[in-house]
Amino acid sequence: MKIGVINAGNIGSHLAKAWVQAGHQVIVSKDGDRAKLQPLIAELGEKVLVGELEEAAQFGDVLLFSVSWLRFEQVLSRLGSLEGKILIDTMNPLKVNEAYEHFHDLEFMRFNSTSEELQRLVPNARVVKAFSTIPAHLLDKDSWKGSQMLPSIFFAGDDGQAKQVVAQLIQDTGFPGIDAGSLSSARLLESMGLLLHRIAEAQEGDSNLNLAPTFLFKQ
Ligand SMILES: NC(=O)c1ccc[n+]([C@@H]2O[C@H](COP(=O)([O-])OP(=O)(O)OC[C@H]3O[C@@H](n4cnc5c(N)ncnc54)[C@H](OP(=O)(O)O)[C@@H]3O)[C@@H](O)[C@H]2O)c1
């Protein structure tokens, strides 16, 4: 399968690696600081293609749309036609305050989700929510070696065929996928992200390190 990674950041770089290893043709691109792609390029070498955002978008039949919610419209405007493409949305509706701290946009979350907003803006693409509830470092499959447990990857969408493709791509990362229903379930998955943040705050710890035990796991 031809996959375009729209922003190989924390999440996108792990998934690009997994999909290259599963034999897919992957092109990575970066919103923001392109120098941050270097470790991934050094690791994967010729097995991965590298391009601008629009090149990745036009190459992929499936696009991993993994950008900051603050920048998603600017990024979207650079991608060209997305007709028929499957867009995997990993976003959470996070804003930033004066102290540069991220917080969930609760007002937006009351009646919407990033996935539904994305689908509204690109009605001829097929949006599937996935990989939004798992901290990026837990997507490193090597760190689960020897473990009997794996985190579940929830996905949601309205297009059945697109969901089948995404279910296979989740399987290719080595993690179990769980179908969460229609695209409107993206609201619930984004609320789950908020819950995980609240749990991390309650633990007063590093959200990345301490969230793992709070996930739903599958043996
Ligand atoms: N990281 C996670 O554990 C995680 C888990 C689940 C879902 N998600 C979601 O997945 C998407 C991608 O996350 P990521 O962590 O993989 O991406 P990322 O590459 O670390 O950051 C996203 C992009 O936004 C830019 N950016 C960061 N902070 C910004 C700000 N305050 N204002 C404007 N632009 C900003 C970055 O530019 P620079 O590279 O130049 O800094 C980068 O291009 C996000 O919507 C996130 O909410 C992330």
3D structure, described in words:
The structure is a single chain. The protein has helices at 10-21, 38-44, 53-59, 72-76, 106-111, 114-121, 160-173, 186-202, 207-210; strands at residues 2-6, 25-29, 49-50, 62-65, 86-89, 94-96, 102-104, 126-130, 150-151, 153-157, 177-179, 217-218. It is globular, with a radius of gyration of 16 Å. An eight-stranded mixed β-sheet has the order 3-2-1-4-5-8-10-11, sandwiched between helices. Strand 1, helix 1 (10-21) and strand 2 form a beta-alpha-beta unit. With 219 residues, the protein is α/β, with parallel strands linked by helices. The protein has a single domain (2-218), classed as 3-Layer(aba) Sandwich (Rossmann fold). The model has no long low-confidence stretch (mean pLDDT 93). NADP nicotinamide-adenine-dinucleotide phosphate is lined by residues 7, 9-12, 31-33, 36, 66-71, 90-92, 94, 96, 132, 135-136. NADP nicotinamide-adenine-dinucleotide phosphate binds at residues 7, 9-12, 31-33, 36, 66-71, 90-92, 94, 96, 132, 135-136.
